[in-house]
Amino acid sequence: MKMMTMLPATLLESKILAELPHQAKEAILRAAEVRKTSPKEFVIHAASPATHLYLLASGRAKFYRLSHNGVELLLRWLVPGDAFGIASLLNEPLNYMGTAETVEDSEFYVWSHAALRGLLKEYPQLADNSLRVALLYLAEFVRRHAGLLTKTAEQRLANTLLKLGDDAGNAHHGGVQVDITNEQLSSLADVSPFTASRLLSRWERLGAIEKKRGKVLIHAPEKLLAS
Length: 227
Hints:
This protein has 227 residues and is α+β, with helices and mostly antiparallel strands. Helices cover 41% and strands 25% of the residues.
């Protein structure tokens, strides 16, 4: 275990630690192992035993399942403050629901199942928070499913891009920059890569966005909503 002198604000404000006193948050975080990873490194694998809880401190990761023909079905874009592997808190853990893979240099705070069971006894709020996080993820998947039935591909892509801008965007000269590829964005929005490319090109011509390799700069979000 690595001792830390300063704890990132993104971790202290994570939903997994909500409503806990500051000292309790620090104690829980200091009980974690800190792991640094490189891009394209697997953190957990779908269907393997949920032995650890992970909290992303810096960097980005994608959380996905593979289809029967090997296509990545992107479930969530993980950003600092996001927790995953919540099944590891159970007395008898289930398997991980998806695979987490880093897309850039990242750092995680990691707790083993045994450590978590001890923390739950000392900080019962941690169990409530974990359930809340799991339900928030479920609500997100429900919204995506409802969007498939009630929204156009253009609306789904615009909403997904704007949400990424809010959750994971970086302030940039002229707008908000989201680091994501066309393929990843199309998977999150449940549209085909061809449709995503066509819509992004149209929005770029309208001046709503600027597309670069692996990046989207949102210039005028109101134009995305108007479209």
